[in-house]
Amino acid sequence: MLAVLTRPGRSFMGRLAKGDDLLRALEQVCREHNITLGEVRALGAVTRARVGYYDQEKREYYFLELDQPLEILALVGNVSLKDGRPMVHAHVTLGDNTGRTWGGHLGEGTPVFACEFALYEHLADQVLTRQYDPETGLTLWPK
Ligand code: ZN
After folding, report:
1. Which H or E run includes 30?
2. Structural domain boundaries of the chain?
3. 5, 68, 94, 95: which sits with the fewest CB atoms below 10 Å from its CB?
């Protein structure tokens, strides 16, 4: 188990551009403002989506291609370092035109229709860097 003491840093609110890749654009904001640890929340809409599910037996992600406009009902995520660069790990709940929901691990390939985000920097004495975890096959924080 790992619990790192953090204190609030800067916070940002903003809007992504139509056509931006949702995941990459959030990482771009982190890079531009040198945010290496934090949390992100967002809502809005996407024109299509690519969301992942991690198969714990096979130890691989498979991705659902949702080829339809969807509302971003909730996006929650965190920011930490992977290979020396800020990485956003986000999960999304998306709603379709019947109110049904889809969701999963946000993958690259999810274009923004409209998106408003809030980004909260956390400051800590210890750097959180993702590394390969042999127990799960995932790239996680150390425990
Ligand atoms: Zn995930």
Report:
1. helix 22-32
2. 10-123
3. 5
pLDDT (tens place) for every residue of the chain, 143 residues total: 999 999 999 999 999 999 999 999 999 999 999 999 999 999 999 999 999 999 999 999 999 999 999 999 999 999 999 999 999 999 999 999 999 999 999 999 999 999 999 999 999 998 899 999 999 999 999 98
CATH of domain 10-123: 3.30.1330.80
Alpha-carbon span 14 to 92, nearest angstrom: 18
What is the whole-number distance in angstroms between the Cα of residue 88 and the centre of ligand 1? 10
Phi, psi of 10 (to 5 degrees): -75, 160
Q: How far is the CA of 105 from the centre of ligand 1 (A)?
A: 4
**89 near 109, Cβ under 8 Å?**
no
| Ligand 1 geometric centre to CA of 77 (Å) | 9
**Quick check: 141 and 2 in contact, CB under 8 A?**
yes
CA–centroid distance, residue 103 to ligand 1 (Å): 11
Centre of ligand 1 to C-alpha 124, Å, is 23
